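R.M. (postdoc): so does anyone remember the format we settled on? I'll just put the C-alpha cells first.
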C-alpha cells in the first residue's frame, strides 16, 4: 500500500548531499564557452537583436565527427558525495505543483528518448536500463556515461528517474522515458595551450552544434534537453559563425528530424552577462544561446515556490515558458542509490540546487509525455501545445519577457483540446454593426385627456365647494324677521 503524501519521505535510503568543486559554481550550471568577440562593442550593433537573422535556405547543417575539438585533461577531481547523509522529509515542491502523481494516468514517457546534452550522466539505480551513452566531446571513449561535474545526472533525474519504491517520494516527470547522454561540456576538464600557457574548459558552441546534430540523428530520440548556455552582450555585434552553426543544428533537429529541442533560459551571472537583460523586448542587452533561436527551441525560465520569477533567471523576448527552478532535489551523481538537495563547495558551504538548468528538464520531460500521448503531432505542434496550455501571465498576448507564456501546466498539455491541431481556424472578430433602436414616440393624447378630465373634475369639485360654502355662509348671515 502506498503511503500518504503527508508521511511519505523522499528516501528511506538517506538522501545524500553533493560536494561540488568551486569551478562548477553554486548551481553547477553547465555553460559552453562563447565565441570569440570583438575587443570593443559598437553602439549600433546593440539595436534590433530581439530575433536572429534567418538562416539562408541552403545554409549547411553542421557536420558531426563525434570528436572533441581539443585534447582535454582533468583539471580538478570529480564530484563526490559529502559522506554524511540525512533523510529528506519532503518531496520537491514542483512535483505537487505539476501533479506528477496524476500524469501517469495519461502518459509516462514510455517509448520516448530524451537526449541530454550536458556534462554526462552517471548510471544510477533509478534509471534501471533506460540510460544509454550517445557520444562524448570531452573524452570520446567514455561515451557520455561519466559525469565528473554532477550537473547532467541531476538534469536527467528530473526528466526520467523512477525509484520504483512507494516510500521514496522523488521521481522524474517522465519516469518511463529513456535517456541518451551526450557529454558536451565540463568545467572539470581543460585544455592547456603550451604556446600561451592558457587553458579553456571543455565545451563551446562548435561542439554544442555537433552534439545537437548527433542527438537528432540518434534513433528513437524525440526530445533534446540542453541545460547549457552561452551569454554575450548584444553590442558585440551581429550573429557570429559558431552561433549560426547552433542555429542550423536546431533547424535540422526540428525541420528534418522532427525532434523537440528544450534549453534553459540562462542564469545570472553567466558568461559575459553580469546583470539582468533590458526590459525592452525589441532591444535586449544580452543574447543567450541557444534560447535566442526561439523559432526552433523552447527556452525555460525558473520559478520559485511562491510563484515569482527566480532572481537569477535571465529574461528576454525568446523565453517560451517557465518551470520550477529552486530548491531542487534530484539524483546524487556520486552515489548510485542516493539523492541530493544541495551543492557543497570545498570550504564546506552548502547551497540549494537551483537554476534554469533544472527548470528545462521539467519541460523536456513534459515534451516526452506529450509525444507519447499525441504521436501524430510534429515537433512544432508539441512546442505550441506546451505554450498554449501554460498558465499565461497577465500581459498582452498572454506572454512576457520574464516567464514567456507562463508556468507549464502538464495536465492541461495532456488533456486540452487545441483547435489548431484539428485544422479548426481560430475565431475571427465579426463586424456586427451597432445601431440604436428607433426613438419611441409616445402618444400623449390619452394622458392629456386624463389630465384634462382630472383637471375638470377637480375644478367642478372646487366650484361645488365654493358654492356650498357660499350658500351656507349666506344662509348663516341672512337676518331673521319676526312678523
Amino acid at each position: 500500500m502506498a503511503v500518504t503524501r503527508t508521511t511519505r519521505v523522499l528516501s528511506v535510503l538517506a538522501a545524500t548531499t553533493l560536494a561540488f568543486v568551486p569551478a562548477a559554481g553554486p548551481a553547477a550550471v553547465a555553460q559552453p564557452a562563447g565565441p570569440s568577440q570583438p575587443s570593443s562593442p559598437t553602439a549600433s550593433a546593440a539595436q534590433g537583436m530581439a530575433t536572429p537573422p534567418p538562416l539562408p535556405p541552403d545554409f549547411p547543417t553542421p557536420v558531426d565527427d563525434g570528436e572533441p575539438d581539443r585534447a582535454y585533461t582533468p583539471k580538478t577531481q570529480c564530484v563526490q558525495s559529502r559522506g554524511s547523509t540525512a533523510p529528506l522529509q519532503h518531496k520537491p515542491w514542483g512535483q505537487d505543483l505539476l501533479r506528477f502523481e496524476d500524469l501517469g494516468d495519461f502518459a509516462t514517457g514510455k517509448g520516448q528518448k530524451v537526449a541530454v546534452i550536458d556534462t554526462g550522466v552517471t548510471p544510477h539505480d533509478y534509471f534501471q536500463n533506460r540510460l544509454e551513452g550517445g557520444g562524448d566531446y570531452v573524452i570520446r571513449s567514455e561515451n557520455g556515461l561519466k559525469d565528473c561535474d554532477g550537473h547532467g545526472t541531476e538534469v536527467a533525474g528530473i526528466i526520467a528517474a523512477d525509484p520504483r519504491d512507494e516510500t521514496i517520494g522523488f521521481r522524474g516527470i517522465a519516469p518511463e522515458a529513456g535517456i541518451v547522454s551526450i557529454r558536451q561540456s565540463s568545467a572539470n576538464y581543460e585544455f592547456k595551450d603550451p604556446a600561451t600557457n592558457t587553458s579553456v574548459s571543455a565545451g563551446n558552441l562548435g561542439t554544442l552544434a555537433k552534439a545537437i546534430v548527433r542527438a537528432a540523428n540518434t534513433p528513437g530520440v524525440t526530445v533534446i534537453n540542453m541545460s547549457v548556455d552561452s551569454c554575450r552582450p548584444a553590442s558585440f555585434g551581429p550573429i557570429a559563425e559558431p552561433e549560426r552553426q547552433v542555429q542550423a543544428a536546431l533547424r535540422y533537429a526540428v525541420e528534418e528530424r522532427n525532434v523537440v529541442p528544450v534549453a534553459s533560459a540562462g542564469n545570472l551571472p553567466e558568461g559575459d552577462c553580469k546583470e539582468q537583460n533590458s526590459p525592452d523586448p525589441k532591444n535586449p542587452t544580452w543574447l543567450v544561446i541557444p534560447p535566442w533561436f526561439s523559432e526552433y527551441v523552447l527556452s525555460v525560465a525558473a520559478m520559485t515556490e511562491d510563484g515569482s520569477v527566480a532572481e537569477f533567471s535571465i529574461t528576454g523576448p525568446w523565453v517560451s515558458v517557465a518551470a520550477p527552478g529552486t530548491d531542487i532535489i534530484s539524483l546524487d551523481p556520486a552515489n548510485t542509490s542516493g539523492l541530493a538537495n544541495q551543492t557543497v563547495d570545498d570550504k564546506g558551504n552548502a547551497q540549494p540546487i537551483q537554476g534554469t538548468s533544472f527548470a528545462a528538464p521539467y519541460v523536456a520531460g513534459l515534451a516526452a509525455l506529450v509525444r507519447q500521448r499525441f504521436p501524430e503531432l510534429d515537433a512544432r505542434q508539441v512546442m505550441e501545445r506546451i505554450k498554449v496550455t501554460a498558465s499565461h501571465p497577465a500581459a498582452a498576448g498572454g506572454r512576457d519577457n520574464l516567464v514567456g507564456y507562463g508556468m507549464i501546466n502538464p495536465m492541461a498539455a495532456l488533456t486540452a483540446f487545441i483547435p489548431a491541431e484539428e485544422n479548426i481556424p481560430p475565431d475571427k472578430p465579426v463586424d456586427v454593426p451597432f445601431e440604436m433602436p428607433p426613438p419611441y414616440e409616445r402618444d400623449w393624447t390619452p394622458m392629456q385627456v386624463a389630465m384634462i378630465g382630472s383637471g375638470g373634475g377637480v375644478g367642478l369639485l372646487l366650484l361645488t365647494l365654493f358654492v356650498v360654502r357660499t350658500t351656507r355662509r349666506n344662509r348663516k348671515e341672512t337676518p331673521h324677521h319676526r312678523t
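R.M.: ...and that's the designed sequence above, right after the C-alpha cells. Also worth knowing: The radius of gyration is 35 Å. DSSP finds nine helices and 18 strands in the chain.
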